[in-house]
Backbone:
C-alpha cells in the first residue's frame, strides 16, 4: 500500500486538475487516477508525489485545442433551423431546436450522469422538460405524442419553441454544474 508523506504536495498537484474535464477519481494500481472513468487524464504518483498527465493537450489548460466538429444532421427528423452545441472538445451541428434539445440533453447526461433525473423534478405549467416515464411528462395525456425517448431512456417534451428548448438546455447545464465554456448551445445564423 502506498503512503503519502506530504499532504501539501498532494494538494498542490491536485489543485491543477480541472474537475469539469476530470469529474471522476479512482485507484489505478499504485496511483490515484483522475478523468472520465475509465479514461484517466492524469495520475497522481504516490512515490514521486507528482501528477503525471496522460496526454499532452491536458498538460497546459490554457493551450488552445482544435475542437472536433460532428454533424448530427443525418439523425434529424427534419432540418429547420441549425444549431451548434459546443462542449470543451467538440462542436455538434444539429438541424432544429428539438434536435438540439434531445442531442444536448444526451450530451449533458453523458457528461454528468443523474442530471436529467434532477431536471425531471422541475415542472412548468402542464409539462416537465424530461421524465423517466412517458405518463409523467405531460398532465394532458394527448400531449404525449409531442415527446421523444432519447438514448438515456428519458422522455423529452418536444413541443417547444426554439428559445424554450435552448432555455431547457441552459437549465440542464446549470444543474450539471457546467460553465459556458463546457457546454453552450446557439442558433446558427442563416448564411
Residues:
Amino acid at each position: 500500500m502506498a503512503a503519502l508523506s506530504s499532504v501539501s504536495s498532494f494538494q498542490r498537484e491536485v489543485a491543477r486538475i480541472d474537475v469539469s474535464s476530470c469529474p471522476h477519481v479512482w485507484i489505478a494500481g499504485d496511483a490515484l487516477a483522475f478523468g472520465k472513468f475509465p479514461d484517466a487524464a492524469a495520475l497522481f504518483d504516490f512515490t514521486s508525489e507528482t501528477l503525471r498527465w496522460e496526454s499532452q493537450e491536458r498538460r497546459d489548460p490554457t493551450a488552445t485545442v482544435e475542437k472536433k466538429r460532428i454533424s448530427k444532421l443525418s439523425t434529424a427528423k427534419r432540418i429547420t433551423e441549425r444549431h451548434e452545441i459546443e462542449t470543451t472538445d467538440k462542436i455538434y451541428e444539429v438541424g432544429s431546436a428539438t434536435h438540439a434539445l434531445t442531442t444536448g440533453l444526451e450530451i449533458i447526461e453523458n457528461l454528468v450522469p443523474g442530471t436529467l433525473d434532477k431536471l425531471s423534478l422541475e415542472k412548468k405549467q402542464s409539462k416537465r422538460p424530461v421524465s423517466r416515464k412517458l405518463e409523467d411528462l405531460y398532465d394532458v395525456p394527448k400531449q404525449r405524442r409531442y415527446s421523444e425517448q432519447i438514448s438515456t431512456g428519458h422522455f423529452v417534451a418536444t413541443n417547444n419553441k426554439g428559445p424554450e428548448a435552448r432555455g431547457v438546455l441552459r437549465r440542464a447545464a446549470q444543474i450539471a454544474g457546467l460553465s459556458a465554456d463546457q457546454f453552450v448551445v446557439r442558433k446558427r445564423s442563416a448564411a
Notes: The chain has two domains: 7-59, 68-187. Confidence is low (pLDDT under 50) at residues 56-60. The longest strand covers residues 39-45.
